[in-house]
Amino acid sequence: MVQEQYTRAGLPGLLQQDVSAKAGILVLRRTGILRMHHLSTSHCSVAQVELRTGLVYLVSAYFQYSENIQSHISHLERVLEALKGEPVIIAVDTNTHSSLWPSGEEQLRGRGRAAEERREALEAFILAKGFIVYNSEGEAETFCSPNGASNIDATLSTRSVKIGDWRVHEDVSTSDHRLITFAVLGTRLGGGAKCGRGACEVSGPRCGLGGIQIGPLAARGEHILSSDALWGIRSKKTVKGRNQNLYPISK
Fold first, then answer.
1. For FRET with 198, which of 97, 102, 164, 217 sits at 20 to 30 Å CA-CA?
2. Residues in contact with 148: Cβ distance below 8 Å, sequence separation at least 6, in sequence order
3. Burial degree of 215 (CB within 10 A; 0-12, 13-18, 19+)
């Protein structure tokens, strides 16, 4: 899943609304994937993908900083209503700091009323939907530029899908948003899985937090890439001609 992707390179397998899109889904290998055109916009790309662990819906979203965040949240709410009860993974460049994932105190306070309202709206949405937030302590910041580093790219999911091995990779891409990878370990219709902030540990044939069935390849899972993140190709900079070799989805 990519945001602010490099759209003029004619990349094969890039699913997006149009050439000016700010969010897309890049398919790096043959897999069963269906783009949901009726749910997608220039800032939100939605697709159904068939993994070894089952069907899952991917949502790549870009919350443009110059726009009211509520318009982007409202569209995501419509997407989630259409996919109610289905396993959904969201990779989003929020352009927002939040106390729901690692952020410095200086990033959460004293940034002005507009930034505070943006953060409050985002957090209210995430908490109301009961999403699992996978951004975790101990990983590098998702965004790094000469002006500083912070976490503004978030990986979220409904409670009917289990993600593990969530990582931020430094020095893999020339983008100022770092590559994020994770593994889809299992899915279950109907939700109800329990998990706290960050990815929980999995052992045995079943996840102990919520009873999500895990497929026979649980140790590897189905690896997904995300860059803006979630996310290595971006409009400002790009890795030339090597993206498939650099970022295999699974080994």
1. 217
2. none
3. middle
pTM, full prediction: 0.67
Q: How does strand 222-226 pair with strand 23-26?
A: unpaired
What does the alpha-carbon distance between residue 94 and residue 85 come to, in Å, rounded to a whole number? 24
Q: How many Å separate Cα 250 from the centre of its chain? A: 17
| Backbone angle region of 192, left / alpha / beta, with phi > 0 → left and psi within -120 to 50 → alpha | left
Instruction: Read off the pLDDT of residues 237-250 as tens digits, 9 standing for 90 and up.
Output: 333 232 322 222 32
Q: Which two tokens stand for residue 48?
A: 């159904």
Q: Which helix (H) or strand (E) holds 28?
A: none
* Backbone region of residue 93 per phi and psi (left: phi > 0; alpha: psi in -120 to 50; beta: other values): beta
3-class DSSP assignment, residue 223: strand
The CA distance from 95 to 170, in Å, is 19
* Closest to 168 (Cα-Cα) out of 191, 199, 195: 199
- Domain extents in the chain: 2-246
Query: 83-87 contacts: CB < 8 A, separation 24 or more?
Result: 83/39, 83/46, 83/57, 85/160, 85/189, 85/190, 85/191, 86/55, 86/57, 86/158, 86/160, 86/189, 87/54, 87/55, 87/56, 87/57, 87/157, 87/158, 87/160, 87/161, 87/187, 87/188, 87/189
> Where does 2-246 sit in CATH, by number?
3.60.10.10
Q: How far apart are CA 69 and CA 163, in angstroms?
A: 26
